[in-house]
Amino acid sequence: MDLFYLYIFMLAAFTGYEVIARVPVILHTPLMSGSNFVHGVVLVGAMVALGHAASPLEQAIGFFAVLLGAANAAGGYVVTERMLAMFRSDRRGAPAMPGAERVK
Length: 104
Fold this sequence. Notes:
Blueprint: H1 2-21, H2 28-51, H3 56-85
Helix pairs in contact: 2-3
Transmembrane segments: 6-25, 37-54, 60-79
Organism: Deinococcus metalli
Domain NAD(P) transhydrogenase alpha subunit C-terminal: 6-88
């Protein structure tokens, strides 16, 4: 059964690598926002696991998972905000980045 899980993990890693490698650069920001959503789901899962922890070791691992999940989600939102700020322009009607008018 462990080989089955290893096979699923390797298949998911390979598929994820191939999908991400083919995403155009202009879609990286929305993709990052989507991954922030997934990190939020991971955070909720870690909180549920912490709520069901019985031993002190399980509680410590659950607390560490919640801490890392929260830091990862918050950091992702900060990075996304900084990336979106790169696309804002100071002048009305002017593209924020050179060549941005060709992307539409």
